[in-house]
């Protein structure tokens, strides 16, 4: 027999199966003789009060063992002789599109400008060591996309639980821990993600799909308002309907679309900084305990949001026990982001701290002046702004990957920091007056936001934290407009704008969900 129970237990109980069994026996009246094993179905931490509890949904197996797997397997058959669909980009959008195409009996051909996920790692190391960014192989470009060397957080605001579960199950089938199906805030970790991505690639190739690395799409082949395929920098063309999942950093793709009259529109973004605290400080604040997280709790998370002068100011992509990484995708840029390993064991906890920016905000004189590129195309204005801010940041960072930084409380007091705290950011930090050179539209709102967050959470606004500039790639600055039913571009048949770069996702899971949807839409076009 199987019984399910809702438990509210101390962290040390939740961490140990034997203690859970004892709890069920003592508190829930389960017979010690009958209980064979337990399985945790859901787990979340309740840190609102001084005493921390873990809420669990537990399945107890009485006089039997589990027959079902911890995750649901998808069947992938051979598609070698099936019609092909071109998938541009091997980020989560492209990879999940490819896997879904196989399920539907279509042959995915992936074209990816960057290297495979292992070789890519060497280029990431060079950013810190030699201060060089390979424009085709970096934190944004390469197998696994922007999600590969990331935190691997898998939560999403998507309300469609079924779609989310499917993505998580596919990750498990390819080697992710089944704990991602259990935790309220699931997370794979940057050390585990590459293996999972390789396994996904092996499934695709094993079923007869193709994956072409170091092959960049340079143009769409368009005939009579229909996309027939792509041209690449290797000279090879690939023919078929195109799922365009190139991510938010493929600025050459946006430029090509704008220059060739393909309908796109400017989209709101959020920009700001990475804020890095000692992890022990965040643990003490969030777990209300001056001894920190103790043995059984993970590095603590936080989430802040407020409105300042009509714009949202909020924390974004928080990485407890993580690292701040240099996420530029080309020369003369500094862009920061965050990642963490599966154990979230680093000495720092970081988060993006960003201010919402709408296309109409660029009418503001101060922000308009940031744009050096002549605004020949207002659809690209938000992208020009990102570029201008990233370049300014690079100049302030000594024209290398060393990032300009300021202590948090100094920033709110408009004071240059005479030194900086230790940081996880490998290329190094340079003390810089961010309050002075960041556009006041952003700096003033961030400063007021920090003061509010300091009131919500005592100790958060501190000079022990460093703000590191700049975080600009929170989402796509452009939407590649598509029909809401066919998911094809509003004019071009056979083009499926997909994932974050097209403006239809904001994270690994939502990009994966959108990839699946685009594959289904391509299937409807080809198999109708
Ligand atoms: P991308 O992942 O950007 O993939 C696009 C792919 O297209 C890339 O591989 C690129 O090389 C390729 N490409 C681009 N142009 C071309 C071309 N012309 N020809 C061929 N290939 C091309 N999200 C989360 O949900 N959780 C996290 O913890 C998280 N942490 C992050 C940490 C970092 C450091 C970064 C950079 C991002 C993080 N994100 C996180 C965001 C997440 O990675 C993205 O939302 C997600 O990867 C978007 O998926 P995508 O497939 O739409 O695009």
Question: Could you describe the 3D structure shown?
Answer:
By secondary structure, the chain is of the alpha+beta class. It folds into 3 domains: 2-62, Alpha-Beta Plaits (2-Layer Sandwich), CATH 3.30.70; 84-265 and 478-527, FAD/NAD(P)-binding domain (3-Layer(bba) Sandwich), CATH 3.50.50; 269-471, no CATH class. Helix content is 29%, strand content 24%. The strands form 6 sheets. The chain has a 7-stranded mixed sheet with strand order 13-14-17-12-20-18-19. A 5-stranded parallel sheet has the order 6-5-4-10-22, covered by helices on one side. The protein is globular and about 70 Å long. The relative contact order is 0.15. The site of flavin-adenine dinucleotide has 44 residues, from helix 3, strand 16 and helix 14.
